[in-house]
Amino acid sequence: MAKNEFDIINHYFAHQQQQRDDVVLAIGDDCALVDVPANYHVAISTDSLVAGTHFLVDADPAFVAYKALASNISDLAAMGATPAWVSLALTLPTIDEAWLAPFCHSFFELANRYNIQLIGGDTTKGPLSITLTVQGLVPRGQALTRSGAQVGDDVYVTGNLGDSAAGLALILNQSQCDQRLTKVLVERHFKAHPRVNVGEALRGIASAALDISDGVIADVKHIGERSQVAIEVDVEKLPLSAELLAFCDGDCQQAQQLALTSGEEYELCFTASKANRDALKMALAHTNVKYSCIGQVIAGRGLLLLQLGKPVSWKLSGWDHFVVTNK
Ligand code: ADP
Ligand code: MG
């Protein structure tokens, strides 16, 4: 029976995984030590999840672990980095083993799937929160940043968009549909797969990339801002799943609206030059992940939504106006 902080660390976090070859020293000392191969950068990202803000206090701990780690791994994927190491700062109100056991099971299952090793962290008492710092490796000069999009590039997304928002609406009882559909969409919300293999394949091909965490229209604007360009998105080209269309009773416009604003998709949005179309097709063929061109990079600033080839201004929750100033 775990009793104090050290018991928790020993029982739940230390020695839970096979040691990676590049880990010299993991949990147990003042710092972890890792080897970084020559000609690689370490890509580093931190995210916090706070109970009551990012998840419900009584949320399934297995889901909380999955969400915390998956969202961090997705940031590595968006950078074209290969996951390597993670540290976990965990604040718990009490030593609750009924919470810790499923949390750790889910955490290590996902960590092992992506070959990412827990190398350290901190365990404290207080309101429930989880902070992860993930680190990955990317060959020097090949990281996918947000700032490289060029006028004329195509804009792509992986997978389908909107399913996560539909799943969330079902979880929150804001919508209802049949059992089979509910199961599929709820699963899409809870178990999005970070696109690590796509990120790796896009090295040297994509001009800019990010992962979709706040909804594609909110996120794609970051590429526009950092690259000093405008982005045109053709709403008819948004990839919609059959399940999302069924959820919307075939109402395409409602499905497109969900696709534009659905957060926590963990799909990648990226730009690539037209000259790289064949290279892109070849590079992504082996990933078994579908990708769709949804628009292009144009001169100016901001975001332009097109419907049937004409600019539209949609009132979307949280997004009142879309202005593009073509310079
Ligand atoms: P320090 O007092 O040096 O900060 P701690 O007592 O906090 O050390 O932690 C002891 C060891 O356990 C360290 O190696 C630390 O990285 C690790 N550790 C603490 N909490 C966690 C956790 N939640 N997950 C993984 N490693 C942890
Ligand atoms: Mg500490």
UniProtKB/TrEMBL annotation:
Mg(2+) 1 binds at residues 46-47, 122. This is Thiamine-monophosphate kinase. CDD domains: ThiL. Pfam families: AIRS, AIRS_C. The gene is thiL. Gene3D superfamilies: PurM-like C-terminal domain (3.90.650.10), PurM-like, N-terminal domain (3.30.1330.10). Reaction mechanism of ThiL seems to utilize a direct, inline transfer of the gamma-phosphate of ATP to TMP rather than a phosphorylated enzyme intermediate. It comes from the Bacteria. It comes from Photobacterium carnosum.
